[in-house]
Amino acid sequence: TERTYIMVKPDGVDRGLVGEILSRFEKRGFKLIAAKLALPSKEHLEEHYADLKERPFFPGLIRYMLGGPVFCMVFEGLDAVKTGRAMLGATNPLASAPGTIRGDFALATGRNICHGSDSVENAEKEIALWFPEGTLQYKLSQAAVIYE
Ligand code: GTP
Ligand code: MG
């Protein structure tokens, strides 16, 4: 099964959306295998968004992400990366369908409240960056009714 890194950004934490976002992934059937509140350094955030370093919005993105604590989560389950992205919605919240997290709670690209890994390879990189202590292995009793 697949793992994905999901993070509530500082605006999402400030707006009290941690529980809502975590809850949507739980209810969908994904297994929470790591979670913590963190205040990442500038260097840590620059590594997380290293692919975007040359983009004009990069300095503003790092400033935004330094605005307060983030809530870091790893979820495991069937097609977790692609399904996680679908649950978050489009990068631009105005293009996100209602029913998605950004489509329900955000308006601006630069304040889009949550992050989700965009590929299995990047998910594994991000999990290693944010959870060097590792994730947990355990059995959900629900699994038998969630999967066929
Ligand atoms: P993440 O899940 O946060 O990685 O978002 P994403 O994968 O949907 O988008 P991407 O990785 O391309 O960009 C990372 C983040 O940078 C976005 O979520 C936005 O917060 C911000 N961002 C991306 N494009 C723009 C832009 O054109 N303007 C501004 N202000 N911010 C942007
Ligand atoms: Mg991205």
TrEMBL record:
PROSITE patterns named in the record: NDPK (PS00469), NDPK_LIKE (PS51374)
Active-site residues (renumbered): 115 (pros-phosphohistidine intermediate)
Keywords tagged on the record: ATP-binding, Kinase, Nucleotide-binding, Transferase
InterPro entries referenced in this protein's UniProt entry, alphabetically: NDK-like_dom, NDK-like_dom_sf, Nucleoside_diP_kinase, Nucleoside_diP_kinase_AS
Record flagged with keyword rRNA processing: no
Cofactor(s), names only, from the UniProt record: Mg(2+)
Protein name: Nucleoside diphosphate kinase
